[in-house]
# Entry
Amino acid sequence: MRFNETLKNIKTYEAGKPIELVVREFGIDEKDIVKLASNENPYGASPKAIEAVRDMADKIYLYPDDSMYELKAALAKRFGVEREEIIIGAGSDQVLEFAARALLNEATSVLMSKITFAMYEIYAIQQGARIVRSSCYRHDLDEFYDLVQKHDPAIVHICTPNNPTGDAIDKEYLYRFLEKVKEPLVIVDGAYMEYAAYKDERKRIDPKELIERFSNVLYLGTFSKAFGLGGMRVGYGLAQKEIIQELYKLRPPFNITTLSLKAATEALEDMEFVQSSIAKNFAQMERYIAFALTMGLEFIDSYTNFITYLFPKEIPSKEVAEKLLKMGVIVRDLTGYGMNAIRITIGTPEQNTILFERLKEVLDEY
Ligand SMILES: *Cc1c(COP(=O)(O)O)cnc(C)c1O
# Structure
């Protein structure tokens, strides 16, 4: 067989370890496992969304509504945009993939931050595009601007708040950059925007204003994080019609299931659930900050539902994550991103208490 050359350069995306794997590998009881690795909403999903999915169960023999009428209407209402400015994907990941396939090939490059969401690189490599990274883990948009001049990338990725670091940029700072950069498609990934907007008004990016002002921007949002629908795989892209039209050509039919469409539509009707989850998230975040200060750990100020703890050289994060795993606590080691750090999803109060106990136990060994 002759597989495409581009596959040689692709490492398979490593997702947060599922609970089932820890049960199997370490024989730990499911109820004793604390999963803080994938930035899911630890408070679950809106009861209204769950109820609606139950009610739809007898409809699963039918293909979904491929026009996605209801969900598009709900998104159009929430953001004040037109239906033609929306594309829905199986997670915002799928919209990223459409964008990569629409714009990238062997002759193009993609610009992204030194440390950012791993899928940007994977989709780019699948297209054979060249990766250009900034030198700083934060989004230094002055450096980004210089790199745009130098490399003329087809896509620029801006993840705000950024995963896996948790930091976010100010809206004004982003706008100043966008005013100067007109050629590439700039993808603004707002997977955690609901959190950032709650914590600091300056970080809030309004997708309607963004896409109205800048014709070369694609804004991404997801139901997997604050909305608590990670298992349903629904995300969306918002942009001017001309961009959405092109991405649509790459969409497979029925890319969202009937149940997922329903769950997302209902979840949008229950912003109270989202807001209360976010309020609890930041109340618990205070405990993570206090823990870091007590233990003398460095951390990055986070605008999300996770926090990144940085370790000194003598404490290898990979080892810490493995030790925690054996104790039934799943976190994300960032060694693969070139950081001696772990990323921890902020859990429920009970989960966090367990995390602090176990992590202290591990760190006390060094
Ligand atoms: C989680 C995440 C996404 C996409 O999640 P989906 O589940 O595919 O919608 C996109 N970008 C970032 C930065 C994320 O953390």
The domain at 5-44+272-363 is CATH 3.90.1150.10 (Aspartate Aminotransferase, domain 1). The first helix runs from residue 19 to 26. Residues 50 and 95 are 25 Å apart (CA to CA). The chain has a mean pLDDT of 96.
